Structure formats: C-alpha cells, structure tokens
Amino acid sequence: MPSPGAPRPDCPFCRIIHAGAPARIIHEWHDALAIVPRGGDCTEDHLLALPCGHVVDFATGPVVSATVQLRAAGNGLALPWSHAAREQEPAR
Asked: Distance (Å, rounded) from C-alpha 27 to C-alpha 21?
C-alpha cells in the first residue's frame, strides 16, 4: 500500500492507532485496523476501517483509502449480513 502521512496528534484516529486512545478494535492488519465507532450515530454493527497512517480524508488518499476498504471487504467485515446483525442479505 502507498504510504499515508505521518501520524498527527490532533487526529482522533491517529491517537487510537499510535497513542493507545481507547477503542474497541475488531481486526488489525499490518497497515490498517477496524474499530467500532464510539458515537451512537451509526447503525448497529457499523465498523470503521482506518489506515495506520494519517489520511486527511477519503478523497485525498484514494489508493490508501481503497486498500483499507479492501482489507475490510476481504475479511467479510464490510458485509452487514456476515455479522450477527438484524440486517439480512438484500433480496434479489
């Protein structure tokens, strides 16, 4: 994966990854991790997949962002019906 930027102390995600800020980590890769969001604004079983280096936003590091999303998808973390959730696979 191309290198994302250096960790930033003002970034809450960098603090989780590099400074041990509290987070419920679901899965770790060498270059990314998946966490459960702390806020209540997400759907049940929602996860965030984060690169281990700082990326300003999804669009400024598209290759890094896509790689991190592929990590989650490759482990089935991005599929709502692969978790014990109320959502089911969409009807066809």
From this structure: 16
Q: Amino acid identity of 92?
A: R
CATH of the domain at 20: 3.30.428.10
46 within a domain of the structure (yes/no) = yes
Q: Rounded mean pLDDT of the chain?
A: 77
Half-sphere exposure of 62 (CA within 13 A, CB side): 1
Measured between alpha carbons, how far is 75 from 92 in angstroms, rounded to an integer? 23
The string of pLDDT tens digits covering residues 23-61 is: 888 889 988 998 888 776 677 777 888 898 888 888 888
Number of domains in the chain: 1
